[in-house]
Design brief:
This protein is 24% helix and 33% strand. With 135 residues, the chain is an alpha+beta fold. The termini are far apart.
Length: 135
């Protein structure tokens, strides 16, 4: 995957460059906007899936960037009970639209990888003090 910013556009006074990390953040935000996405997965080698935090907005996103095109891989966690093909399709459309609108790059592919299913847990009411072993 590309780690060097590619020349994006030459102007009369210089060039405009967009770092791949910027495109990763745009893709990550576009993916979590989709209803049914519980969060982003750490990726293929991550092992432990974690929910998206504000500190790492590009988590679970890999991009390949050329001068005019980009390819994106998004690894997500879906909420239980949702139709995965519909969610994946909506992610593809939203990521493609967001990147193209914000950067002007042509997105040639958006691959969606489902890494986990998140189950909503109900919070249990705290039991009485009688459950403690030591008083």
């Amino acid at each position: 995957m590309s780690t060097i910013a590619a020349d994006y556009e030459r102007t009369d006074i210089g060039t405009i460059q967009i770092a791949p990390e910027v495109i990763e953040v745009i893709a990550g935000l576009a993916a979590v906007e989709v209803k049914g996405v519980a969060g982003m997965s750490g990726g293929f080698a991550g092992g432990i899936a974690e929910l998206l935090g504000r500190k790492n907005l590009s988590k679970g996103v890999k991009v390949e960037v050329g001068q005019r095109e980009a390819a994106v891989d998004v690894s997500i966690i879906v909420e239980y009970g949702n139709r995965i093909p519909e969610i994946a399709s909506e992610i593809q459309q939203n990521v493609k639209r967001s990147i193209e609108m914000m950067t002007g790059l042509n997105v040639i592919e958006v691959n969606v990888h489902i890494h986990d299913v998140h189950f909503k847990t109900e919070s249990k009411p705290e039991e009485e003090d009688s459950t403690f072993r030591v008083k």
